[in-house]
Amino acid sequence: MHVVLDEPKCVASGQCVMAAPDVFDQRDEDGIAILLNENPGDELHAGVREAAAICPAAAILLAEK
Amino acid sequence: MTVSATGETVLPPFPVPRPASCPLQMAPEYGEWVAQEGLERTVLADGTPVWAVNRYADIKEALADERLSADGRNPNMPGPGTGPDGTPSFPRMDDPEHNRIRRMFTKDFTVKRIEAMRPGIQKMADDLLDTMTAKEGPADLVQEYALPLPSLVISLLLGVPYDDHEFFQNHTMLVLRSGVSKEEMMGSRRAMFSYLLDLVERKEREPADDLLSRLAQEQILTGQLRREEAVVSASALLVAGHETTANMIALSTLALLQHPDLLARIRDTDDPKVVANAVEELLRYLTIVHSNVFRVATEDLTLSGTRIKAGEAVSMNLPAGNWDPAYTTDPGTFDLDRDTRGHLAFGYGTHQCVGQQLARAELQIALPTLLRRLPELSLAVPAEELTFRNDMIVYGLYSLPVTW
């Protein structure tokens, strides 16, 4: 799985951090999402898919291999 | 749509009041509206016609459509869309202007920041219950707990002296009541606006460790944001921070008292995931923001098969969307095991609630704390005597008399 974060679209809702805390964080200065791991391991895929599905700005794109 | 005795077509009201016999359930009309494709032509309390968007998928599509504008300066936007000087708050702006200003506020609402606030919120909840239970019951849970808790929290976060909370609570009530005269509403908005203007000016000179001070120092004094822009947005956060969580705490308590088995599960669990999902299900099941999520079409467009003309107003029916069987099965059942992901209680799209992580933390603390400390909690009046806020922008209870 390859994860792409479309940062300009991010609205800092924090939903991705709740769903996949090992893959996403938020910048301290404005809460915008940070991608910690572009190629998360299998055990993290469910959380990442959830993060992508509930992101209110549709800012998380997934390429499944 | 119905026909009156005189033969005129009468548009249904928006929002439709919840049934007096089951005040935690949605209006039965909403079930009919989501069952069919298309938007419903409705009328607001002030007589403005709006298209109600009811289905889950249609609401998400509408809230992601840039042709539907949130700009409060649009003359066709229902209700007062701007502060008294004509400046809208950032929720009443479109991108990119909206996003630029929203990002000045989001740093105080990150998951990390809110996590760090939890011990403070826990102490406030415990202190309020100490005060309430030091007196003889019954007590009004709204006045003693549900309202002061979020009020203390948002005041602390913004840097508004809590001593002024009565002033804000009174004006907030007027700002959020549907059908209040425009003069009365504007009077309250002006009073809050001028109070906050003075406060922000003070924070420019004497900063403290709070959101308004950071805005003053980092945005206003550097010329990124006008003082009026900061104040109108801060005022929106203050109103939202008071009312939404307060009504969720009180209405959730009632819902749990009516489902003792579910109440016991939340009270007795030591698994924070159970509490977290219970809070999400309460947010979905109760969906208290039953009005006021408006957009105006900037061009002709089709949504759910309905043609919307440029200039027409659209209102998101979040309760109907969260009770859409296409989103979740058996939506009218309060179910702690439901998969609640993707509910619309905080909206959707670029405007999704900026304070949602704070609201979650407050509810995840307030409800179990109440249930654990007062295991004998019960209603002090018959349920039929409770009065519900059908006439407010945020649904809830005017009071909740309880004993313990």
Automatic annotation (TrEMBL), chain A:
The keyword Electron transport applies. Its cofactor is [3Fe-4S] cluster. Residues 1-29 form the 4Fe-4S ferredoxin-type domain. The lineage of its organism: Bacteria, Bacillati, Actinomycetota, Actinomycetes, Kitasatosporales. This is Ferredoxin. It holds the Pfam family Fer4_13. The keyword Electron transport applies. GO terms for molecular function: 3 iron, 4 sulfur cluster binding; electron transfer activity; iron ion binding. Ferredoxins are iron-sulfur proteins that transfer electrons in a wide variety of metabolic reactions. Keywords: 3Fe-4S, Electron transport, Iron, Iron-sulfur, Metal-binding, Transport. InterPro entries: 3Fe4S_ferredoxin, 4Fe4S_Fe-S-bd, Fe-S_cluster_ET. It comes from Streptomyces phyllanthi.
From TrEMBL, chain B:
PROSITE patterns: CYTOCHROME_P450 (PS00086). Residues 69-98 are annotated as: Disordered. It holds the Pfam family p450. The keyword Metal-binding applies. One of its GO terms (molecular function) is iron ion binding. Keywords: Heme, Iron, Metal-binding, Monooxygenase, Oxidoreductase. InterPro entries: Cyt_P450, Cyt_P450_B, Cyt_P450_CS, Cyt_P450_sf. It comes from the Bacteria. The keyword Transcription regulation does not apply. Belongs to the cytochrome P450 family. This is Cytochrome P450. It comes from Streptomyces phyllanthi.
